[in-house]
Amino acid sequence: MIIQIMVIVIVLTLLGFFIRNTLNNLELLGREAGYGFLFTPSNYDINQHLIEYNSRSTHLRATIVGLINTGLVAICGIVLATIIGFVAGVLRLSSNFLINRIVYAFVEFSRNVPVLLWILLWHGVMVHSLPHPKQAVTIADVSFLTNRGFYVPKPLLEPMFWWVAVALVIGIAGAAMFARYSQKRQEATGQRYPVIWINSAVIIVLPLLAYWMAGSPATLEMPVFKGFNFQGGLVLTPEFLALTLALAVYTGAFIAEIVRAGILAVSHGQTEAAYALGLKSNWTMRLVILPQALRVIVPPMISQYLNLTKNSSLAIAVGYMDVVATIGGISLNQTGRALECMSIVLSIYLCISLLISAFMNWYNKKISLVER
Amino acid sequence: MAEQNQQDYVPGTHASLPPPISQVGIAGWMRKNLFSSPSNVILTIVAVYFLYKVIPPILNWAIFDAVFSDVDHRNECREIAAGACWAVVRARFDQFLYGFYPDYLRWRVNLTFVLMFVALIPLLYDQVPKRKYLLWFSLIYPFLAFFMLWGGLGLEPVESAKFGGFLLTVLIGMTGIVVSLPLGIALSLGRHSSMPVVKMLSVWYIEFFRGVPLITLLFVASTLLNYFMPPGTYFDLLLRVIIMVILFSAAYIAEVIRGGLAAIPKGQFEAADALGLTYGKSMRLIILPQALKISIPGIVNTFIGLYKDTTLVVVVGLLDPLGISRATLADSSWQGLSTELYIFIAVGFFISCFAMSRYSLYLERKLDTGHRDK
Predict the structure, then answer these.
(1) Quick check: B350 and A99 CB within 8 A?
(2) For residue A199, pLDDT beyond 50
(3) Architecture of the domain delimited by A33-153+222-367
(4) Residue A217: what are its φ and ψ, rounded to 5°?
């Protein structure tokens, strides 16, 4: 009890000390703390904005644009990293000596070099080694790889396209319901529907049907070379590409090790038992090995996702305008409100990571072994 | 020959025949590891094609067409050969190691670095002769290193703005490792404690520092820390950064050790209580030795992460190897040679991080006493 009171007193004293100093310092600077500046024009441009934004927009909008950019890198990076990680993790277990060694070298090189260095290296290679727009590398006649970015056709969506999105949502919901139903049926009768095939068919066919019925409400805008650069189309900037690829490869190497450890953690007896029961080898993988391996794989993989999201803040090193570069960088420098800007950045990241760890706790509880 | 083959042997006396040629030697090895099944044959062909496509260009660029000689402009490099221009690394090599540490005082850095291994070896391996005395040296080493690097007490002082290159990396990394370990242990004990206030504060601390990226904390260190101090206090930027790195990695270490504490059977705590040990004694003699042992691989991994994260200090303007490379690239005679510089730094980091991860594997094997079933 005495210790606790002492701890409280010490912590409160420290907090009081810091707060008093902060107030004193703010007074010396002749400034009041407050978030009113968020609603004043930002006066700077952001080259990649997925929502409407210009230099007359507010700082708040700049923050949101930055947050969306962070989210974009995080989602693309996570998807890529998962693919890289699973492929590398499975190949690492291959009995083929060459494949095994190549993947081993890849994983060790990726993991043991700082991710910031990877980002800068990719960015440097893209800016210095890719050709100018005039000699762009053409891929399939519609995409162009240049040192100013990767130009791809841009889908232009008409209002009717909403129906396709609605159909997709309905398809996913239906697939989830069907998966549940078939799981129940399997538990009751032991018979199994080909769930994966039926579900992927539902998820793909429904939106396609809606697309056809709505009268093809989307067209592609092609990038065209005009003057000195490509016009139109969708451009993936070298900054975005470098950041996403570097984060994906770096995190993918960690995920590869997690996947490998997860598969190795399922004892060989399980495979033999499944074969003894007469399961085919892909059923063995899907119904016996994978569910058990995933229990080991998923929790550390989610914390890798979280790491990737946090590492996306390194965007500032290559000038990609994520949430740190907008509100914590240019806005901070323009308004001089370090305290307010940094508190916003810190709380955004804190929210993201607390949400993800809440999800992880829920998931861990759900999959943890129920011992009888 | 023919007669010999027909010779009768008493069962059990025939000399062992050599195994079939396809099972041993290079042929056998290749059969087993490269061509054991049709899919393996395809994989092997793909891998060989991949290596053939990737390795020669890289070797050509990095070695055969590269310039190693001592030139001082990138254009001279281009005149000699089309590959990598390692001359830039050669020209700035000293800066990459020491930053702007004065030339004539660099022996102090070298000596500190060599002594670091003397201090580390008894900590890393337990079969060193005279380990007891060497451990005393390990204990005083941090103070010695501080004195050697910054000077004072008769040695010429060097201000920390002059520190840079891999010196800075090792300095921040090592200080972070040494100080954050005890802090992390304290935090994990706090989180494991039965006192609600202590537990709550530890949880808040750990969740906060694990939830935000290091780069934002470094920004806090460079822009905000002055707000929290009495007006007029001046803090060295390097010191502020080191403090942040320590606070940051302590949270991660606390989390790793918490895993170790959670893995210890409850009976151990109860047994310690039953023996009448105080909290401090039961922790020091019973719980922590076991918990730390379990969590050592995790701790080493955290250290590797911390060591790699030291590169982030470049964003607040410290001259770590990346900062030096940025300054080099701004020099008009070395513009555009970013690939060479980054690869050089990457190799430097790879060597040290790979060595650390090998050490962690060695520890894992050594400490695996086989209590838990595999």
Answers:
(1) no
(2) yes
(3) Orthogonal Bundle (1.10)
(4) -80, 35
